[in-house]
Amino acid sequence: MSRLRLIVVSNRGPVSFSRAADGSRVARRGGGGLVTALRGLGAHHDVTWIASAMTDEDRAVAAERPGEAVDEVTQSGAPYRLRLLDHDRNEYDRYYNGVANGTLWFVLHYLWGLGNEPTLGAAFRRSWTDGYERVNAAFAAAVVEELDRTPDAAVWFHDYHLFRAPALVRAQRPEARLAHFVHVPWPQSDYWTVLPDDVRRAIHEGLCANDSVGFHTERWRRNFVQSAEELADARTVTTVNPISIDPGEFDELSSSAAVLEEERRIVSSRPELLVVRVDRTDPTKNVVRGFRAFALLLEQHPELVGRVGMLALLDPSRQSLTAYTEYFEAIECEAAAVNDRFARDGWLPVDLQAADNFPQSVAAYKQFDVLLVNPIFDGMNLVAKEGPLVNERDGVVVLSENAGAYAELSDWVVPVNPFDIEGQAAALYEALTLAPAERRRRAEAIDAHVRAHDVAAWTETVLAEIHHPASTILSQ
Description:
alpha/beta; 18 helices
């Protein structure tokens, strides 16, 4: 592919800034799968990345060059331009906590039972108008300014934080080439009616202002087509491209000093059989039901007591939101209940560790006999791809049928309904007792698939479609 001019737009940027002890400015690589997936763009294309200023030092960088991008380089030395937007603190809180994570995330993942929640009153309306709309307008204004500098650039929006921005850009620059990738599930149209009519219409019209909208699976794309037509009478081109990972990065990580040190700790205390889960403490990840299924496994198969343990490596997530703090507490309570019931001298059934420790996660990937990935709903879930790539024990993946990764890996995993505790317990037992030859066949198949469909292939395919948006068109 020839070198392209590209404006990437996302809430979180590829780096965040801080001050070292000596007072010097330090740039640290941003977190999240999106940043990891896109960080190689600068080596092949002329990239300007627009993102929110997240730290105090980010805001200082933004203030030094107001309305302009600064020159940065990736870890590999590839150049790109970074433009940070310093939003009003209250507006950003309403946008991020009030709407993006406090409302849209719950809609997109079917998290509300609807019997008692949500109650969308004046607080939500203010968060929408004085938060989400304003921050999206600020992103759109920055995009328009960058397009004025490079009119031939394509604009690539990302995720649920920026559903309104494309329509705002389109209104000012009708000729612009706009694309959006949605990294989360898309619920069926009926579930969207939880939101006020003008809000759900604005969301769908905002996305359909793009020349193309991408999804990880045909399932999510199909739901979007239906909801856009039914709720907003809106249409655009849609595509399906499942995101992946960088196998080379994980090959290098797996033999790094930090990972090897963490692996030594795991090996020194691991039981005969090890079930691993690596997640954020997000209600979508279904950790509590996973612990209950593990307890049921021990109850139904007492011969496994003392032989199998679960290592749960959980990264505390969005603790500024009450629903997340309450879920974290439920996770801790459930783990304690399992341990109180089944613990024996020298053996703890659930080893729960809450920290952001990626080397530890990679070390656990290497050591699992079973990897439990049971989200309620998930746009993709890269854990299901990362773990098997570095695993050294022909480990088996137990995977929710509602994870986006299931569409690709279903032939080689043990599937589960994420709401069925008994079914999950049975799946864990099946995975633990699978014949060695079958374990190896499945592990090798997943490894081969992920290596053949890596993040570089994903990026190249998506960028080609952005410049030639002629894939799947919504029905007229």
